[in-house]
Amino acid sequence: MLISFPGDILLLSINAKLAESVFGDFRCLLETLKEIRSPKLVPIIDALFREGTALALSYEDYFGVQIRLPVADDLFEDTLKPVRSNIVSLLIGAPNADMLNSEVIDRVEETSAELNTKAFAEKMLLNRQGLLYLRSRSPYRGPHPNRFSRARDLAKLAIYSRSFLRDAHHFSMFHPRLSQFLFQRVRQWVEYPQLVFDASVSQTLAWTAFVEEFLLADRLEAWTKLSESKIDLPARTMAQIHGEWWTADVLSELLDDDAFPE
User: Fold this and answer.
1) Is-contact 107 120, C-beta < 8 A?
2) What is the pLDDT of residue 260?
3) Is the pLDDT of residue 86 over 80?
4) Cβ contact 180:235 at 8 Å
């Protein structure tokens, strides 16, 4: 699915379901998944990304996977313990799980510790490199239904926010007022997550983790310092716009009103 975000940012999402058996060797499965961890490692997927992004010469990728283990709920934690290094290795893209020391493994798990406080027979790990969700195949009895898909959507929002704040193609130079308006929206997501994602505590926690991992607060501060002397009054008034600001009609109107600084 190709998503065009305001700010000339394209995000292409490719989803697939693998019917791999983990009855034999869970460690082997985790190592095998590394072979498809990046679309650049799979020629046909890489071609889809390049076709979907038209003339883009390069792209960044983000990995997310959900694994359902054929074990009873009470055996879930014991099943994960022997393969902690393999799980972390898959998440961060380390080629050799045996080379990861316990300090690295502990640090990666601690980053997502708050996300798993109330978890039962499930485990979520996330950082700026990927999203990993494991759970048993038993009927779900935890407090977070559809947890992986929701976290995946938050990852997309974090990726967009990071790309927008990087402003690598100088969109803010060509469309200063629209950029300032979008900046205020991103700022609201980053600084007030408890208000934006108030429907779920778990979503708020996941978004907060993404904000920290993607350094979004630091990027907001850098943007502010670099642009505070260039913001004009019309740009400030963009914050007063309400309604469906993301729709094509409204964005077209905002773009038409923008102009190069004289």
Assistant:
1) no
2) 41
3) yes
4) yes
pLDDT (tens digit, 9 = 90+) per residue, 210-235? 999 999 999 999 988 877 655 444 44
Tell me the two tokens of residue 172: 């803010």
Per DSSP, the residues of 168-206 read: TT-HHHH-HHHHHHHHHHHHHHHH-HHHHTTT-HHHHHH
Q: What token pair was written down for 71? A: 């074990």
**Cα–Cα distance measured from residue 117 to residue 25, given in angstroms and rounded to the nearest whole number:** 28
pTM (two decimals) = 0.81
CA distance 93 to 123: 18
Contact criterion met (CB below 8 Å) for 150 and 227: no
- Positive or negative, the Cα torsion across 31, 207, 183, 240? positive
Instruction: Extract the tokens encoding 196.
Output: 């934006």
Number of H helices, E strands in the chain: 13, 5
For residue 256, what are the contacts with CB-CB under 8 A and spacing of at least 6? none
Q: Bridge partners of 69?
A: 136
Q: Give the integer Cα–Cα distance in Å for 101 and 126.
A: 19
